[in-house]
Amino acid sequence: MAEDGRRADGEDRGPGAAYGGFAVMEGLLEKLKLLDYEEQVLAKHNSAKSLSRHYFVSSPHIGSNPGEQFYLFTITAAWLINTAGRPFPEPLEYDEPTTTVSNILAELRAFGVKVDFPPSKLKSGSGEHVCFVLDRLAEEALKRTGFSFRRPKYPTETTEEESIVEDDAELTLSRAEEEAIEADDDEDVLDLDTLKLQTSEPEGALRADDAPESAGDAAEWNLEVERVLTQLRVSTRTHNKQWRSHLEQMHQHNQAISSLTEDSKSFLTRLQQDLSKAVEKVSSREKYISKQLEPLIQEYRSVRARLQQEQERYQQTNARVMEKRLELREVSEGIATSAEISDEVKKIEQEIKDRDSSMSDGAPVVRIRRSLTRLKQEVVQMDVRTGVVQHALLLSRLKEKSNMTRDMLATNIT
């Protein structure tokens, strides 16, 4: 179960592989609860809080404390190894992490578990490898204690049969519909006996001799009879269930269809004849036109072939023209560069000529000599001025010295 949630480093991971550690950690926590880890581990080490569902899972969405997680991992692993029946010293907080992890993996291999990852994967105290190690050790501890998971037994539920009660309103409605249909069927059949009894003279009726004479005219009676004659007619309603009416309708429709079929058949026959004649005319006209246009078609084909040849020649000529244009552009660029080179050569020649003329001309030398003579004169003048200034400075110092001597003598005398 733990190996299913674990993935090797080089194995292809699916989209849900990143969340496999969460499922392994939840199963591990249930196993630790079965082993009573809160009393056996947390209470002995004065740990106030129990492990969360995803304590040893490495995820950026969960806060981590590597030191605390590694310490809890080592003491939990040591307790599980001891519970599984193998002696293992409880690691201390300041022990070497590499040694502790190597010893835990050695004990895990002793249980027959294949370990294909380095011990450095466990130094962080969290991650899928930490969950894998603790999960396998928890399984070994549960085997040692004799605990095994069983399939859940679901209780069988008995479903009570619901009694279906017919609605009285529906029954009444269906009965009313049946009675209405029967009444309609009865109304369709005329009761001749009843009509005879109604038209026959009843007992106690007035005889012709005893009947009172009418004061009206016979013409007025005829008009009245014609007016009410439509209301005295007996009409029978046909019902949908009468197959005789349906049969008569079918015969009528059949006769109408047969009559229409004969008319349409004759019309379609004439239309077919007209269309066949038109097709024959079109085909004969097409043959005549094709015969008349045969030389033109041949000429068109030959002209089209020549056109294709001319197009190919045009493409070839156009390609050669493009090549010549490129060559012309290169030549023009070469001419431009040669013109620039000739201009530069002319400039260099002019500079050489100017330098030669300046070197052969003595005017600069004369100007240099004049400048040197002027500089010498200025140097002599500066020397004279310097001597005058030094003499004046010496006289001022001597004068100050004599004044100081006179003042000192005057002070001594007084």
TrEMBL record:
Major localization class: other
Keywords, in A-Z order: Cell projection, Cilium, Coiled coil, Flagellum
Cellular component terms per the entry's GO annotation: cilium; Golgi apparatus; intraciliary transport particle B; microtubule organizing center
Recorded coiled-coil stretches: 297-327
InterPro entries in alphabetical order: Intra-flagellar_transport_57
Region (Disordered), start-end ranges: 197-217
Entry similarity comment: Belongs to the IFT57 family.
Descriptive protein name: Intraflagellar transport protein 57 homolog
Organism: Takifugu flavidus (sansaifugu)
Lineage: Eukaryota, Metazoa, Chordata, Craniata, Vertebrata
